[in-house]
Amino acid sequence: MATTYKRLKQILFGRPLASDRLEHERLSKKTGLAVLSSDNISSVAYATEQTLLVLAVLGTAALSYVVPISAVIVGLVVLVALSYRQTIFAYPQGGGSYTVAKDNLGTTYGLIAAASLLTDYILTVSVSISSGIAAITSAYPSLIPHAVALGLASIVVLMAINLRGVRESGMAFSVPTYVFIVIMLALIVTGIYRGMMGHEAAPSAGPVRVDPVSAAHTGIGGPLGFALVFLILRGFAEGCVAITGTEAISNGVGAFRSPSARNAATTLGWMAAILATFFMGTSYLARHYMVMPTPNETVLSQLGHHIFGGGALYLALQYSTFAILVLAANTAFADFPRLSSILSGDGYMPRQFAARGDRLAFSNGIIALALLAMVLVWLFHGDTSSLIPLYAIGVFICFTLSQVGMVVHWWRSKDPGWRWRATLNGIGALATAIVFIVQVLTKFTEGAWVVVLIIPSIILLLRKIHKHYESFSAEVRYAGHAPLMFLHHTVVVPVNGITKPVAGALVYATTISDDVRAIYVDVDPGVESQLVADWKAWDIGVDLVVIPSPYRSVLRPIVDYVKALTHDGDADLVTVVVSEIVPRKWWEHLLHNKTALYIRTAFLFRPNVVVTAVPYLLGHSARLSDLMSHDETLDEENGIASRAPVIAETVRG
Amino acid sequence: MATTYKRLKQILFGRPLASDRLEHERLSKKTGLAVLSSDNISSVAYATEQTLLVLAVLGTAALSYVVPISAVIVGLVVLVALSYRQTIFAYPQGGGSYTVAKDNLGTTYGLIAAASLLTDYILTVSVSISSGIAAITSAYPSLIPHAVALGLASIVVLMAINLRGVRESGMAFSVPTYVFIVIMLALIVTGIYRGMMGHEAAPSAGPVRVDPVSAAHTGIGGPLGFALVFLILRGFAEGCVAITGTEAISNGVGAFRSPSARNAATTLGWMAAILATFFMGTSYLARHYMVMPTPNETVLSQLGHHIFGGGALYLALQYSTFAILVLAANTAFADFPRLSSILSGDGYMPRQFAARGDRLAFSNGIIALALLAMVLVWLFHGDTSSLIPLYAIGVFICFTLSQVGMVVHWWRSKDPGWRWRATLNGIGALATAIVFIVQVLTKFTEGAWVVVLIIPSIILLLRKIHKHYESFSAEVRYAGHAPLMFLHHTVVVPVNGITKPVAGALVYATTISDDVRAIYVDVDPGVESQLVADWKAWDIGVDLVVIPSPYRSVLRPIVDYVKALTHDGDADLVTVVVSEIVPRKWWEHLLHNKTALYIRTAFLFRPNVVVTAVPYLLGHSARLSDLMSHDETLDEENGIASRAPVIAETVRG
């Protein structure tokens, strides 16, 4: 059974890798771009669309605002990228916002950053996969009813790939990133060229104007009303989702090949340039071709139809959009487990997240991320637009904290050029703080309130875990350097008859102590006399204690007997030895009372009581009671088996 | 925690009862009628309706067949009741069809009877509860959408009541039975009186005739066609559901007060008389008032409306119908656990079904029955008509086997009057065998095939369980009467540092053997040297074995080390002692690696390896490692703690 499991695990996740192969799994710049920047670049698949969705109440007038809003966002992208470039060099070992905020602003701000990042990573997976599936269902509308199932399946596949380890995911994922980059460039260049040649007229063509019906509906008196300002701010806030993922590279510096800081910084530059081009290009084309969001087709798919027609190039656009969004989700699969491991090392997350698994990947973090993202996709029916309002808020908290942290860092370090560096990070912090406030104010009722509740809850949880580990390590700290002591040790063996499993338990009991008591719980008055007679005939030198149980409970008399032995706090040590039947087949477990389990549970919270189950393997040749009969034949005269020499290689510490 | 559970259990199910109160829980005749005959009597709520449903394709012509069919069924009732009256006296200890068939026809027939009875009891609960809820929704049609939920809730309540024990259910349930009997008598008498007075004309009045549309639709040429014969046979088969439950009293003879056989026989007579009267009465009234089944109102409810109007008497009829049907389900709650216990005692069902619980009820049987019945109600959406085709088949198998068994019994015993007794049982057997064949033939496609598959499957399962217990008891049988032997015992203690839990495990290990090895699995090269230095300084006389683990697995090196010690089949005994952290709060369990659990699982199938977890209770004052420090202070010179005397009362066997 164990072998089958091991073989299955190897087929699915590959053979175990030794620790010294860790360095070989690191990323080149090209692979790093594919693995870590896709989150950022892929947001062109939904950022323009989200802005247009908010502005849709203005009708086609929305299109006149989308390009200026996008330009402001691109300015923010450049600012944030420059800020993070500084972080990469200041923190070449990686760690990102959590490390920067913790080091420079203290634990509380570090935890705020950590909680924001954790929610952000989970939402990265949910949003990217939902949007990627939307790219597919735009091309094949008949798949729309299966969107949620497809999304869940994609996450499971991603999880499996990541459990295999980081380099393989980099290699397997480089091609689609570069295909997407090429096709997006082709889309933008062709679109602008055909637009300039006047080849195209959008289906809903006409001069850009304010639709009077929509304008009246929203109660906007004129284009300068307060409601319009609010709408534009909300459109801006939604579009800022394009900036998410900028921090991924600085969090993952440690995954790059040496010189890792320089490689990471170059990759960050490429990423920002690509994003800026694609985002501006998409927004420009959307305005030019007058594309508005619809429920069943994405804006990018509509642009593909206008510019490429419905042929192979269009399909390539949709497939590569899906692929890059899957890679975006993969970014989170690289960063979430790494952050969990750091938090775990600092005692803020369960220890199980700290260690790398067989394939040098952080298995538990990967599994936890996949499960949480699947819950979100399921709860929100795989709808990108309902997930987006939760998404960018956490990111902007991190941006702000990280950059404020960098200001403090430069202030303290007084490195060459610290003044202008601090100023740059300061401007970045101010800008992202403003964006954060805009996000919360404009999207509060759309779902932002959920994030406002969840992030403090996560912080409380992290603190609670930390407190537990702190008090735990204080409690288990062992200072004395004393020799070990021996205690008086009583062994209690519950028996239900003279059978081989009981004999096995008694052999074990007499091996570990001289003070052994067999106890029989008598639930059925009248049966016990035969057992007592048999026991006397057996004559093994162990007393049989018979306890009547008028209420037919087997467990309670045993517990009471052991309680009486230990006298609540007395110095005695009691071991309860029970025989445990281990059947050959799983269903046979249902046919045996789980007495061993019940006894173990009953004594779990009692100090100085140890419960030992002596397994009796049904259908197995060698076992304790057989040994007994065997020794009996060998040493019948003295009744004591000779002590066999121990044959085992031990390494002296 | 354990105390809270105990208190909650006492509030819900009452205080535990001692075994010697068993006799006081037995049934009087009046209570016995309420508890055991309701299954039988309550079938008037649906038997007439099921016959009419089958005949409905004939239109109102159906009404001309229902009275003759009912009369034949009443004849069968009398025959079956007379047969079972003989069984009661022949088997005064109870046991019913299973016991009779097993004793006289052999194990195979006994198991067929047992399997049929088990399915019958489960269906009794599902059918009765579904039909009872239909009585309520007939009165309150707004409850129709909640029928399934109401059914499931009723079964849960029944389960809870039965877990409290049998006498209380008898007392609580007597009143509704007698109320139902009185109201049904009132309905029949009033209905016949008003009919004779010519007070009434049914809403769909007119002379009984074959509806030409329906007749044409079913393709019946004339009233004597083969299709008509088949329909009438099916109507008869459906109506035979009225006979189910006749066996309940003979199965439960043991629950009656002494003289239990005579009391049970008298009760059986009452029951048959009441059923015959009510069933004939209902069928007669249905014909007279021309009542046909409708999806939303039961036939009995329609009769109530016609005869009582819509007032208090009508509601009393509906409520008491519901109540008697709940009691019918309760019959199964008395019989299913009792049969399970008998089968368990014979080794055909898991042992957990054999023993009475705290309240002298067979808790596991009650819970199993409730769960299975709830699954059926849920699967069939609480629809009585779809459950009925599965229902009566099992019962008629039992009737036949039981009566054939009685024929053999009289033949063997040659008791006074054995000839006429055997003849009576033989006629009964023949009649019920014919009914069984009619049931299978006419209802095969309606669901009877499910039962034809399920019953053999249950028989196979019972046999498989029996085979396991047989080979188990042969395997564990201990014949030798030898003194116990001592083996060479090596104790392995995995350590992860010098902490109090580890010290506790080491104290325990040195207490149970002289050959103790501490092992440290080194997953992170470089950390171990400090531990080795600390260990040498600690100087406790236990060797530390350091095992490098390049693949970072902690478990595998421990397993390999123990394997090397035991040499697969060698005579050594190895105990692995692990410290197990027991936190104060449940969620804290998630923060600690479950090493103890993994190690226990890894060695579960290895002979001669015992895994012992030494619990370390977080936040608790007294524990092993404290004891050690304590003794250290007392006996610092010699380093050995004195052995404390054991203070505990033991009863010598």
Structure write-up:
Chain A is mainly α and 653 residues long. The first copy, chain A, contains 24 helices and 5 strands. Chain A has helices at residues 2-13, 29-36, 38-42, 47-55, 62-90, 96-105, 107-139, 147-163, 166-196, 212-217, 226-239, 248-251, 260-288, 299-308, 312-345, 363-379, 384-413, 418-443, 448-476, 500-512, 528-538, 555-566, 595-603, 624-634; strands at 489-494, 515-522, 543-548, 573-582, 609-617. In chain A, strands 3-2-1-4-5 form a 5-stranded parallel sheet, with helices on both faces. The first copy, chain A, is elongated. Residues 201-221 and 627-653 of chain A have low confidence and may be disordered. Chains A and B meet through helix 19, helix 20, strand 2, helix 21 and strand 3 of A and helix 19, helix 20, strand 2, helix 21 and strand 3 of B.
The major beta sheet of chain A can be summarized as: 5 strands, parallel
| Structural class by helix and strand composition of chain A | mainly alpha
Could you give the order of strands across the largest sheet of chain A? Answer: 3-2-1-4-5
The general outline of chain A is elongated
Distance between the termini of chain A: 34 Å
Low-confidence stretches of chain A: 201-221, 627-653
Work out the radius of gyration of chain A.
34 Å
Our estimate of the beta-strand percent of chain A is 5-15%
Mean pLDDT across all amino acids of chain A: 81
Task: Determine the fraction of residues in helical runs of chain A and give it as a percent range.
Answer: 55-70%
Total beta strand runs of chain A: 5
Order of helices and strands of chain A: HHHHHHHHHHHHHHHHHHHEHEHEHEHEH
